[in-house]
Amino acid sequence: MNRSVSKAEWLGLVLRWALGAWMLSMGLVKAWDPVAFLKAVRQYELVSAPWLLNTVAIAVPWLEVFCGLLMVTGVAVRGTAWLLTAMLVPFTWLVWRHAWILQASLQIPFCAVKFDCGCGLGEVYICPKLAENLVLTAAAVWVGWTGRGRPLALRYDLVRGRFAAGPETG
Amino acid sequence: MASNPADAAGTPRDGRSRVSVLGEAVLVLAAGLVFGWLANAVSPRGLQWTRNYFPLAKVEAEAPRPAEDRPASQDPGALEAEAVSRVQARGFTAWTFARVADAFEDPRRLTGQVIWVDARPEAQYRRGHIPGARPLDPYRPEQQLLELLAACLRADQVIVYCSGGRCEDAELAATLLQEAGVPRERLVIYVGGFHEWVEKGQPVETSTPDSASAGTSSFP
User: Fold this and answer.
1) CA A43 – CA B95 distance, rounded (Å)
2) What is the distance in angstroms between the Cα of A67 and the nearest Cα belonging to chain B?
């Protein structure tokens, strides 16, 4: 290992692996039971057209698996990190909104709301779920913004050249 | 392997690098969608893009009215009332536990005049179901519907259940049976579902219709 690799790079590597492993495992759980995920997506009443609902239920799990693989292996890391951010932010907002509706109709405290958000873990309490999503989003933003986590990356920048953000690696 | 001497802050150097990263994200998205399309196509659990998995009419369920001393989430009566209202709004007959328990004692259950249909996923069905119930997963009904239809057409009554509560899979399965020719008036939805059945300590069977080794137990 190169001794000149900074602590920030190692932190980036840990975050990259953690984020990738998490997305990979959650994506596989959803892909294993796509009907359960389809029902979970339907509860958010995002789309009404069946083909659009099916598209979301088909695309999201495998996209998570794909992004997880890229993060773990270190391919196109920054683009993947921003894509994960773009998925996590609206999803977190949807989960929050659904929990808000539930707590209003059930007349219970917000943190007592428990439902299957389609996250891959079954029924979860809303507050730990939101905290988890905030941590994941922060990790994705940090990796995407700083470009850290280059050690052991197969091809950190997919597009190499004079406009690439970081140095040639791997 | 190398350190990242990109810049002091480690942030993108200029707008063009941001464009490069954005382009990378778009490429990853496109490749991920293609990956998803292929994976779904080869997966035995894959979904069909164009199928309407929820052919039920949308029902504006009346918000559950909580009992005075406890929230609706803890009030099984409110949940049951909500389910009965939803099932009836869709034109099906809704039965609660008392009616279902009577039907279970009905000897016609043993002669095939009263058929029980379990609309939960097959894995849950295999872990335990109401004795004598046949599986019909409304999301993958093709084979099971073929096996079940003749018996349902002969029966006087078809009792369909899923997990209970807000689960709509029993209504989906009943809709499939109706579309296949079973008269609507013979179809009954057990709104309490399997969870209530177990909670009430009723017997549960773990064998499948085609398996020889039957196992029936009564859950506490």
Assistant:
1) 25
2) 7
Q: Complex ipTM above 0.85?
A: yes
Fold of B75-218: Oxidized Rhodanese; domain 1 (3.40.250)
Q: What is the pLDDT along chain B (220 residues), one digit of tens a residue?
A: 444 444 434 454 556 677 788 999 999 999 999 999 999 999 999 999 999 999 887 776 554 444 344 444 556 677 888 899 999 999 999 999 999 999 999 888 888 899 999 999 988 999 999 999 999 999 999 888 988 999 999 999 999 999 998 899 999 999 999 999 999 999 999 999 999 999 999 999 987 665 544 455 554 4
Residues 9-38 of B with CB under 8 A from A: 9-13, 16-17, 19-29, 31-33, 35-37
Amino acid letter for position B56: L
User: Least CA distance to A76: which residue of chain B?
Assistant: B24
Chain B nearest C-alpha distance from A132 (Å): 23
How distant is the Cα of A168 from the closest Cα of chain B, in angstroms?
9
List, edge to edge, every strand of the sheet that includes B114-118.
Answer: B93-95, B187-190, B157-161, B114-118, B134-135
If one counts every other C-beta atom within 10 angstroms of the C-beta of residue B154, the result is 10
Domain residue extents for chain A:
7-146
Angle of the A50-73 helix axis to the B15-42 helix axis, nearest 10 = 120
Q: Which of B22, B24, B70 to mutate to test the interface with A (most CBs of A within 10 A)?
A: B24
According to DSSP, the residues that pair with A124 across neighbouring strands are A115
Which residues sit opposite B95 in a β-bridge?
B190
Each domain of chain B, given as residue ranges in start order, spans: 14-47, 75-218
Q: Does B165 touch chain A (CB under 8 A)?
A: no
**A28: Cα within 13 Å, side-chain hemisphere:** 7
Q: Which residue of B has its CA nearest to A80?
A: B25
Q: Residue A98: its chain B contacts at CB < 8 A?
A: none
Interface contacts (A, B; CB < 8 Å): 174
Q: Residue B62, Cβ neighbours under 10 Å: how many?
A: 12
Query: What is chain A's alpha carbon radius of gyration, rounded to the nearest angstrom?
Result: 18
Phi-psi sector, B204: left (phi>0), alpha (psi -120 to 50), beta: beta
Residue type at position A103: Q
